[in-house]
Amino acid sequence: xxxxxxxxxxxxxxxxETPSLDERLxxxxxxxxxxxxxxxxxxxxxxxxxxxxxxxxxxxxAGEKVAAYxxxxxxxxxxxxxxxxxxxxxxxxxxxxxxxxxxxxxxHEMVTxxxxxxxxxxxxxxxxxxxxxxxxxxxxxxxxxxVLALGTPAELVARLGRSQRLEMEAEPQGAALEIVAAAGxxxxxxENGRLALQxxxxxxxxGLVAALAGAGVRIYRVTPxxxxxxxxxxxxxGGEVAA
Length: 243
Hints:
10 helices; alpha/beta; Alpha-Beta Plaits
């Protein structure tokens, strides 16, 4: 049983929300110690550590103590540490928590690259639904330890069964509102000819645009907005979507 646990640990990497780095040591030493703990062959440690430092853009600060690192640098170092033994399964807990937009984008790019390498599987735990929709091939929505829904982002959005929103810029606005209302579509007016339409089926859009153009309404922009993973989440909380 012990051997099975060791093999499982050797194939698994973990990044917690708060990186537990030894800030008294340098970035290089942090990686080297974990490489030794995970049984990386001694002859490979230096090369593997250097490669990770370069990949995560930390090579120029590798000799400094981690206490002097920024939050983004610590997060990148912790991610490098989780990969030092080349695991096939990676668990990331809120990897962009507390990061500025630039650092968060950098982490997103790294996660995308990691999941595409050598069949590696990445489990991402996040409350950032836009992040989940952007990065994940499959999403599980959990509440109180129970799976409310599971599928690709597109599948979950389709399961919502809700017509999409549509933003339009058209003039004269009054005539456009009358035509939209006659089609049984709810709309609200904004500034500069902008209209926000609710409950528009995808198949209805071409006919609606044709009706507006046929009535002499000038259409400058039509922007469909599909339901998001956030819409799915709140619908699940309200019981609108079946698990």
